[in-house]
Write a structure and sequence with these properties.
Elements (H helix, E strand, L loop, with lengths): L2 E6 L3 H10 L5 E6 L2 H11 L3 E5 L7 H9 L9 E5 L4 H10 L3 E4 L4 H44 L9 H13 L6 E7 L2 H8 L1 H15 L8 E4 L4 E6 L8 H10 L5 E2 L4 E2 L3 E7 L7 H18 L4 E3 L2 H23 L2 E10 L5 E12 L3 E3 L1 H11 L1 H22 L6 E6 L1 H5 L3 H12 L6 E6 H5 L2 H13 L3 E7 L16 E4 L1 H5 L6 H15 L3 E4 L5 H9 L4 E2 L26 H7 L1
Parallel strand pairs: 1-2, 1-3, 3-4, 4-5, 11-12, 14-16, 16-17, 17-18, 18-19, 19-20, 20-21
Antiparallel strand pairs: 6-8, 6-11, 7-8, 9-10, 13-14, 13-21, 14-15
Helix pairs in contact: 7-8, 11-12, 12-13, 13-15
Length: 586
């Protein structure tokens, strides 16, 4: 690489000296005799280094140096001041003017060569850095453009992205139009495809779905991919002749034909959520959320369904989300408490055990009805965490009652289907028993028929492990699930609870009487204790006593109450005479 040097000096002889001293270097040397000509020649020569005499008529070296360093296009070019004035004041003036180095007159070859090489090396490094920055900036611009494309276009299907769709909806709303609709589509159980065939086949299927969905577009419509297996139509404009629901059915029916992928034919279904432009037009996000909400409601109806958004659906969803958030807080803040309902020996009317029932003491609403929050716990999976809280409180209370002298009292705790299937169930139970010091022989775990029958072999193994810990096992709500008396002998059970629906209409002429009699007879043959739930009248009590039912519970004896209200009940038989007083406890 040949460097270009510009020598500015009012004495031509000084140029000759410099030229002679640098003749062994591969430099292009150019000479001008004053500052004005130097300024004129800079754009032509594009020098890599300037050697500038300090003392010159017109624009002197210091002034020229200051001007050059103030000009963005030349401020990076190194300047070496050449001066016969070697005083410290002069050198300070040179540096203050912006000079990068200096050479004293008379000029020495060794010094000149070294300083020129040093400045050119700095110049070269600066140019390399400049080139690197330019390349980096170009890459940033290119990558920014690529990211912009990714933001606005789905790379797999080449459809518009979620962001692009929202901008289009925003433009429609900005025109204050309501003649449009969003249709949110979600494939049913698409994760099974990825799980069974892998993501490559899954992506091939998504591209095939996108191609088929585009067949339902009118010229002014937009189809976007807004999630893994989720698409959304912006149908605009909607004329009075356009039948949106008929169009939705047509889209759903188009999924009846198999999708062709390079490896196989695949069948899949989809659900649609419809939201009209006048349904929730506060923002594009709100409208998209409305369509999404309607789609999830369609999924609850089954595969291949559609649902149209309405404000009541939105309010219900909002209440549900609020409930979920409040339940999360309730678990963190210890708002879930345990109430206890006595289990009575029907022969003596004495309390022999208690069923623990979860209650929610809301800081603002007070005691929330169980029917309002327990289904939400189950659907969200929070029931596993809540169940552990109930188990811990119940075991602590069981230990306390035993220490107070009620040595044979039992406590029953319900296990949800999710809890029973939890891989950490046994470890959780062991930890709770170790922490509380409760006697496991007096702990009963109540399990529903469905929890057992979903996987009978695994359930048997788990129940055997519980029995090894001396924990008793009870079947809750018997008769409402599989309703099969034949399976009872297959499992290591201790207690059978007759569901309240059979107790409700239990008189001799009613079919329920024979059902309860059969359950009690078989349970006695299998050595199982029987608990009748939901006893509310004296007639029901007497009918159960006549059939030889051992245990029972219900409002006839006592409602679920806090632990501190239970202790007085342990001293007395709960016969009908006491019913008015006990009813007040609930």
């Amino acid at each position: 690489m040949t460097f270009v040097l510009l020598i500015v000096d009012d004495e031509p002889d000084n140029f000759d000296v410099i030229e002679t001293l640098l003749d062994h270097e591969d430099y292009q040397l150019h000479y001008v005799e004053n500052g004005e000509k130097a300024l004129a020649m800079l754009p032509v020569l594009q020098p890599d280094l300037i050697l500038l005499d300090v003392m010159m008529p017109g624009i002197d070296g210091l002034a020229l140096c200051q001007r050059l360093k103030a000009m963005p296009q030349w401020q990076s070019v190194p300047i070496i001041m050449v001066t016969a004035l070697a005083s410290k004041e002069t050198l300070a003036q040179c540096l203050e003017a912006g000079a990068d180095d200096f050479v004293s007159k008379p000029v020495n070859r060794l010094e000149l060569t070294a300083r020129v090489r040093s400045m050119l090396r700095i110049r070269q490094q600066y140019q390399q850095l400049n080139n690197f920055n330019a390349q980096l900036e170009a890459k940033v611009v290119q990558r920014t453009a690529e990211l912009q494309d990714l933001l606005y276009q789905d790379s797999l299907t080449q459809l518009p992205s979620r962001i692009s769709l929202l901008e289009q909806v925003g433009a429609v709303l900005a025109d204050q139009r309501t003649d449009f609709a969003l249709v949110y589509l979600d494939c049913d159980q698409f994760k099974l495809v990825n799980g069974a065939f892998g993501y490559t086949v899954g992506n091939q299927l998504l591209r095939a779905i996108a191609e088929r969905l585009q067949q339902h577009l009118r010229p002014s419509d937009i189809l976007a991919r807004v999630g893994e297996d989720e698409f959304c139509f912006l149908l605009s404009p909607l004329t009075s002749h356009f039948d949106l629901e008929a169009w939705a059915i047509e889209v759903i029916q188009s999924f009846h034909d198999p999708f062709q992928t390079p490896h196989c034919e695949m069948f899949i279904t989809a659900c649609l959520g419809l939201a009209m432009g006048d349904s929730a037009t506060a923002s594009p996000e709100a409208l998209l959320q409305a369509a999404d909400t309607a789609m999830y409601r369609a999924k609850h109806q089954g595969k291949g369904c559609y649902h149209r958004f309405d404000p009541q659906l939105h309010e219900a969803t909002l209440r549900r989300l609020t409930l979920e958030n409040d339940l999360q807080r309730a678990l963190d803040q210890g708002e879930l408490v345990v109430y206890y309902q006595p289990i009575i020996c029907l022969a003596t009317q004495q309390v022999v055990g208690l069923e623990s029932l979860v209650r929610w003491q809301h800081p603002d609403r007070g005691l929330v009805p169980p029917g309002e929050f327990i289904p939400c716990l189950e659907e969200t999976g929070l029931v596993v965490r809540a169940g552990l809280i109930v188990l811990r409180q119940a075991c602590q209370q069981l230990r306390d009652w035993h220490q107070q002298g009620w040595a044979t009292l039992t406590v029953a705790v319900n296990l949800s289907v999710r809890q029973f299937a939890s891989p950490t169930l046994l470890a959780d139970i062991d930890q709770v028993l170790a922490e509380t010091g409760a006697n496991p022989a007096y702990l009963k775990l109540e399990i529903t028929e469905s929890a057992i029958m979903e996987n009978a072999e695994a359930a048997t193994v788990l129940m055997d492990a519980l029995r090894e810990r001396r924990i008793q096992i009870s079947i809750d709500d018997f008769g409402t699930g599989y309703s099969s008396l034949g399976y009872l002998h297959r499992f290591p059970l201790d207690v059978l609870k007759i569901d309240r629906s059979f107790v409700r209409d239990m008189h001799r002429s009613h079919r329920n009487y024979q059902v309860v009699e059969t359950i009690i007879t078989l349970s006695n043959q299998l050595g199982l204790a029987v608990v009748a739930e939901g006893i509310e009248t004296l007639d029901q009590l007497q009918a159960l006593q006549n059939l030889g039912c051992e245990l029972g519970q219900g409002f006839f004896f006592a409602k679920p109450v806090p632990a501190e209200a239970i202790t007085p009940l342990l001293h007395l038989p709960l016969n009908p005479v006491l019913q008015p007083a006990l009813g007040a406890q609930g």
